[in-house]
């Protein structure tokens, strides 16, 4: 979503797999590993939605900095979206209805037809935001002709945006953000079953009102909902607070077999699940969606800036970039979002092939192999000539290096020849899916030791790792 200071100030003045989200296919058997996406995936595209359709292609739409059009790109891979041609599906008219700001589109395939939900203001009143539905008249979402079907009909004619649609146990629901008369917030989340793409089947349920300290920093906001149905539960993420570095993700959870229209079925996480990370230089992560990668693994899609200080009005700061990263799960089945992983190729986790529950990790600048928080176990592969270097995402200026004693630790990556020599690794991918990291300086392969990480002979069984 593109909720910014200007429009919120305007609002304040005016106020004185039983289920499959449309953006998430169920996990499929693993496919051959392709090139890892790099962040930012697409620059200057906020409120991004990516999903893998039944045709096997990835579709992406997002808000553009000009807020004047609806766009779509597609690719056979997530990484390919970065350079995919972008089609303009629709442009706002020069005046009148829908001639204001155009925000937060979402593409959905409903009963064999393509639809796009989006928020739009009016000419002369760009902040008079309401939700509308665009319909494709053809079978191809990129080349087909699109037309405005109508406005989403809700109980109140008020600020409305960020609609998402999902199917749960045979019922198609819509969840959206809206300012409700008499409730002193900027926006709350609502849920209702759909009768048609533009009409509700029954009165909506108010799912949540922003009241917690992290939901009301700058503005009282709950918006940008995204459903994820996994592990017997429906997880519904949403974005909260002002769209600067305070922007973050919260989460509601309901049992898979619950009555979703009963507010008592939902539990709000007491703390945000995804926040700004100064270690990785990603600020204001939010307005997410979910998809799966080519191997069927869940992926978090979101936007975030590379810097904290914003010059001028955030509405006209164009640098909220589309980002992606793997989504992991805790032992209890709940999502572990970790931290925004930062710019560059997506990081991976490495566990000894013989001990899948343990991971290579850096904690307090020390390398170990064992249990650790998710961010501590994520390492990015950096190019170093014809070799690679491993760098922990929480210490992006450091790399794994081999010492004269063949012990392995972290050193600051100052770009010197000595660091490049000590940190240069060759990744050897075995037919069974395992990985070996061959050290040029150590003359062997990286392997766990009793006190951390060391170098052993190349073919030692302990030098086999699984990448995740």
TrEMBL record:
Residues 1-26 form the signal peptide. Belongs to the glycosyl hydrolase 43 family. Pfam families: Glyco_hydro_43 (PF04616). This is Arabinofuranosidase. GO terms for molecular function: hydrolase activity, hydrolyzing O-glycosyl compounds. CDD domains: GH43f_LbAraf43-like. Keywords: Glycosidase, Hydrolase, Signal. It comes from the Bacteria. One of its GO terms (biological process) is carbohydrate metabolic process. The record marks 162 as: Important for catalytic activity, responsible for pKa modulation of the active site Glu and correct orientation of both the proton donor and substrate.
């Amino acid at each position: 979503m593109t909720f910014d200071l200007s429009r919120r100030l305007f609002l304040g003045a005016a106020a004185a797999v039983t289920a499959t989200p449309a953006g998430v296919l169920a996990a499929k058997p693993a496919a051959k590993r392709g090139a890892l996406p790099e962040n930012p995936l697409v620059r200057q595209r906020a409120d991004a939605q990516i999903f893998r359709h039944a045709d096997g292609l990835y579709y992406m739409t997002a808000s553009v900095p000009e807020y004047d059009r609806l766009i779509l790109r597609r690719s056979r891979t997530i990484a390919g979206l970065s350079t995919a041609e972008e089609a303009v599906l629709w442009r706002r008219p020069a005046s009148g209805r829908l001639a204001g700001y155009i925000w937060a589109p979402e593409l959905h395939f409903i009963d064999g037809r393509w639809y796009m939900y989006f928020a739009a203001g009016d000419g002369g009143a760009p902040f008079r935001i309401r939700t509308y539905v665009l319909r494709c008249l053809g079978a191809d979402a990129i080349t087909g002709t699109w037309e405005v079907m109508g406005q989403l009909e809700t109980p109140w004619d008020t600020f409305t945006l960020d609609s998402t649609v999902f199917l749960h146990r045979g019922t198609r629901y819509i969840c959206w953000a809206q300012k409700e008369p008499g409730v002193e917030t900027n926006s709350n989340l609502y849920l209702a079953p759909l009768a048609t793409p533009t009409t509700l089947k029954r009165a909506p349920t108010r799912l949540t009102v922003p009241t917690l300290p992290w939901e009301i920093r700058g503005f009282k906001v709950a918006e940008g909902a995204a459903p994820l149905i996994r592990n017997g539960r429906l997880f519904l993420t949403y974005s909260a607070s002002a769209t600067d570095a305070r922007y973050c993700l919260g989460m509601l959870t309901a049992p898979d077999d619950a009555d979703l229209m009963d507010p008592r079925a939902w539990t709000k996480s007491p703390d945000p699940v995804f926040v700004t990370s100064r270690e990785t230089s990603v600020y204001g992560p939010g307005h997410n969606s979910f998809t799966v990668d080519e191997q069927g693994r869940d992926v978090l899609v979101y936007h975030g800036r590379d810097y904290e200080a914003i010059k001028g009005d955030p509405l006209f700061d164009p640098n909220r970039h589309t980002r992606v990263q793997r989504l992991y799960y805790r032992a209890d089945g709940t999502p572990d979002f970790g931290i925004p992983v930062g710019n560059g190729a997506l990081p991976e986790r490495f566990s000894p092939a013989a001990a899948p529950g343990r991971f290579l990790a850096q904690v307090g600048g020390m390398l170990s192999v064992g249990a650790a928080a998710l961010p501590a176990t994520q390492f990015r592969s950096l190019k170093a000539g014809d070799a690679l270097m491993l760098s922990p995402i929480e210490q992006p200026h450091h790399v794994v290096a081999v010492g004269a004693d063949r012990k392995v630790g972290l050193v600051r990556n100052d770009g010197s020849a000595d660091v490049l020599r000590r940190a240069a690794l060759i990744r050897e991918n075995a037919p069974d899916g395992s990985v070996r990291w061959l050290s040029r300086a150590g003359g062997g392969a990286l392997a766990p030791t009793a006190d951390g990480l060391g170098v052993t002979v190349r073919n030692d069984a302990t030098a086999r790792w699984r990448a995740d």
